[in-house]
Specification:
The protein has 301 residues and is of the alpha/beta class. The protein has a single domain (4-254), classed as TIM Barrel (Alpha-Beta Barrel). It contains ten helices and ten strands. It has helices spanning 14-24, 47-59, 82-102, 119-133, 158-166, 180-186, 193-203, 238-245, 276-285, 292-300, and strands at 4-7, 29-32, 68-70, 106-109, 141-145, 174-179, 209-214, 216-217, 228-229, 255-257. The strands form two sheets. Strands 1-2-3-4-5-6-7-10 form an eight-stranded parallel barrel. A two-stranded antiparallel sheet has the order 8-9. α3 packs across α4 (119-133) and α4 crosses α5. The model has no long low-confidence stretch (mean pLDDT 97). Bound molecules: fe (iii) ion (2 copies) and zinc ion (ZN). The site of one fe (iii) ion has 4 residues, from loops.
């Protein structure tokens, strides 16, 4: 079964607003941040809005097990700075509790950056922090995201993710989130996705893949840039992305679009139109819409 959605907002109506937005894209799942991706200010979860959201999901056939939370970018589990380590652990323990209140079972986490330390030190810091955070009594799984290798980002190869996961004690609460733009930018050839999956299965196990971010890339393979592009408009291309989405080995795993909003024209920095409704339509049809950018603009205008 195709489980597809996109990044949606989580604002005043919290999860209820998120599900409404997902419905407007004809999605059957979604991903949200519990506040701004760039900061760690968080509001209390409103249980009344949560139960309304759960009801609306049930009415529309959404499975809460496929809904994904994403931790903010600025927590860095790889750091050797003790106060930043404490901050990351405390924030993420509370974030897991917020997920539990929202009935959400999976949260994506960037492994972090190794600043002024070796990569192996960074990797073992990440495992140590995860061992302080993860708890069998909390039914929320952390999914480490594959990264593009911008700056000192960790988790850019399957081997690095394996090294982190090997040292995690509560194995039932750790997994991986693939990101097609990040994999391309890290140097994996998305036209040979089954080879990537073979290696992943040998080192970690495909059963550990809990989510897949579906993005095209503005840059060439191995560029280490991390700039997402609308599906079919970038360097990975529509056919490769459709093959990944419909790969039988990934059936039922939530696929989440994180492609950029677009402006009135290419040079318009005021990006206000979400591409998701039109991308989901193309993905369901398995046919690239050459007019997608114009179709998005005229629909939302
Ligand atoms: Fe991410
Ligand atoms: Fe991503
Ligand atoms: Zn990215």
């Amino acid at each position: 079964m195709l489980v597809i959605g996109s990044h949606v907002s989580f604002n005043k109506e919290q999860l209820l607003g998120s599900i409404k937005e997902a419905l407007s894209y004809n999605a059957n799942t979604f991903m949200f941040y519990t506040g701004a991706p760039q900061n760690t200010l968080r509001n209390k979860i409103d249980s009344n809005l949560t139960s309304q959201a759960i009801k609306l999901m049930q009415e529309n056939g959404f499975d809460i097990n496929n809904v994904i939370c994403h931790a903010p970018y600025i927590v860095n589990p790889a750091t050797s700075d003790v106060s930043k380590q404490e901050f990351a652990v405390n924030f993420l323990i509370n974030e897991l509790k917020r997920c539990e209140e929202l009935k959400v079972k999976k949260i994506v986490l960037h492994p972090g950056s190794a600043v002024n330390i070796s990569r192996s030190e960074g990797l073992s810091n990440i495992s140590d922090r995860l061992n302080e955070i993860l708890n069998e009594d909390i039914n929320v799984t952390i999914l480490l995201e594959t990264m593009a290798g911008k700056g000192n980002e960790m988790g850019i190869t399957t081997q690095e993710l394996k090294e982190i996961i090997d040292k995690v004690k509560v194995k039932s609460r750790i997994g991986v989130c693939l990101d097609t733009c990040h994999l391309n930018d890290a140097g994996y050839d998305m036209s040979k996705f089954d080879e990537y999956l073979d290696e992943f299965d040998n080192l970690i196990g495909i059963d550990k893949i809990g989510c897949i971010h579906i993005n095209d890339s503005k840059n060439n393979i191995a560029s280490h840039k991390d700039r997402h592009e609308v599906i079919g408009v970038g360097t990975i291309g529509f056919d490769n992305i459709v093959n990944i989405i419909y790969n039988k080995r990934l059936d039922g795993i939530p696929k989440i679009l994180e492609t950029p909003y677009i402006g009135e024209d290419e040079n318009d920095k005021n990006r206000i139109y979400p591409p998701y409704k039109f991308e989901i339509e193309m993905i369901k049809n398995k046919v690239f819409n050459k007019n997608i950018l114009n179709d998005i603009r005229s629909y939302y205008k």
